[in-house]
């Protein structure tokens, strides 16, 4: 079951969640810093102030969460 408590690595390894992630934050799956976050959970990253710098705003996080839950 897809959820925002998945690690970034789990998200990008699954074609469905990767597509949702990329759709909501264009370019994120090819961002050079992404590998540094592989072991972190999406909800942990979303709680960091720096998340908005890459496009993970609270609104985007909510949209991703809803789309993951719909899978």
Notable features of this structure?
single chain; about 70 residues; mainly alpha; 4 helices; about 50% helix; globular
Short recap of the structure:
With 71 residues, this protein is mainly α. The protein is built from four helices and no strands.
How would you characterize the overall build of this protein?
With 71 residues, the protein is mostly helical. It has one domain (8-70). It is 48% helix and 0% strand. The chain contains 4 helices and no strands. The protein has helices spanning 8-13, 15-24, 42-46, 58-70. The longest helix is centred in the C-terminal third of the chain and has 13 residues, at 58-70.
Helix count equals 4
The mean pLDDT is 96
Sheet/helix structural class: mainly alpha
Taken as a percent bin, the fraction of beta residues is under 5%
Task: Please describe the topology of this protein.
Blueprint: H1 8-13, H2 15-24, H3 42-46, H4 58-70
Helix pairs in contact: 2-4
């Amino acid at each position: 079951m897809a959820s925002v408590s998945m690690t970034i690595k789990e998200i990008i390894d699954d074609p469905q969640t990767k597509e949702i992630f990329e759709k909501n934050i264009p370019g994120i799956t090819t961002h050079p810093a992404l590998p540094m976050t592989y072991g972190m959970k999406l909800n942990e990253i979303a709680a960091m102030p720096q998340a908005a710098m890459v496009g993970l705003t609270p609104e985007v996080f909510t949209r991703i969460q809803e789309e993951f839950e719909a899978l």
